[in-house]
Design a protein that fits this description.
Elements (H helix, E strand, L loop, with lengths): L1 H15 L15 H36 L4 H29 L1
Length: about 100
Amino acid sequence: MKNKLMLLAVTLMALATPMFAQGQGGAGNPSDATRKAAAYLAMGIAAGLCGIGQGRATASAAEAMARNPAAVAAIRVALILGLVLIESLALYTLVITFVAQ
């Protein structure tokens, strides 16, 4: 699993290098395409990691409810609060994506 993630990261970095080449504008000022690409890449990473986090939180909550049915209400409240906080990361990144354009 770790080798696959490393291979994916290296492949994405290799494919993204032409995107960061210097444009006609000049040195030090990122072009619109670079800013948009970075914002979209950040949104993709945030959405993927939020999905992983939500899946793990839901799986853990389901397991905890199965082990202790008396604590279902408390587990459900903690789960919903956790899912809201996880989803807020994706929403903040979406707002940053719109601001970067």
